[in-house]
Write a structure and sequence with these properties.
The chain is mainly alpha-helical. Helix content is 70%, strand content 0%. The protein has three helices and no strands. Helix 1 packs across helix 2, helix 1 packs across helix 3 and helix 2 packs antiparallel against helix 3.
Length: 87
C-alpha cells in the first residue's frame, strides 16, 4: 500500500473518531449501554466498516489491508483521545 493511501486512511479515521468523540462527550447522545471503556472497540468497528467511503481500492487483497489499517488507526486514535480526556 502506498504512503499516500496510508495517510488518507489515517486522516479519514481521525475525522471519523473525532466526530464520534465529540458526539459522545454530550451525555444526551450516549445510548443506555454506552461506556467510555467501550469507545476504542466501537471506533475499531466504525473505522473498519466505514473507511470504504473515504479510501477505495480495486484489489480485494488491498481492501482487506485498508480495512485492517483503519481498524488499527481507529483504536489508536480513540485510545489517545480517552487518555487526554482523563489527564
Amino acid at each position: 500500500m502506498s504512503k499516500k493511501k496510508d495517510q488518507d486512511i489515517a486522516l479519514a479515521c481521525y475525522a471519523m473518531v473525532s466526530g464520534q468523540f465529540a458526539r459522545f462527550v454530550n451525555s444526551k447522545n450516549q445510548y443506555e449501554t454506552f461506556t467510555w471503556d467501550s469507545f476504542p472497540k466501537l471506533m475499531v468497528d466504525h473505522c473498519r466498516d466505514n473507511i470504504f467511503m473515504h479510501v477505495t481500492s480495486s484489489s480485494i487483497k488491498e481492501e482487506h489491508l485498508i480495512r485492517a489499517t483503519a481498524a488499527n488507526f481507529g483504536k489508536e486514535i480513540a485510545t489517545t483521545l480517552l487518555e487526554r480526556m482523563t489527564q
